[in-house]
Task: structure prediction
Amino acid sequence: QVQLVESGGGLVQAGGSLRLSCTASGIIFSISTMGWYRQAPGNERELVAKITSGGSTNYADSVQGRFAISRDNAKNTVYLQMNSLKAEDTAVYYCHAEGRYWGQGTQVTVSS
Result:
């Protein structure tokens, strides 16, 4: 049974930072491509960032230079460091694994 458990969301002022974590079980984490998506009310779910097993990363244009995705294979955990947060970053953030598994989501709210 695959489980992706996110943590680290919350309320932060614009310009602040948060770090999201996602710990996986039930998959071979070290060979899995991991990603973070987000969905704001009324919007479709969109890719924020992803990281391959080899460490290659890519980002949505809207977060490039502000967010950083990383992984710790020893802990089966992927992180999303979010800096210089903006009100438009407010959304539910979801962890994604192997192109098919989803976490339950964690709310990020940025106040302006």
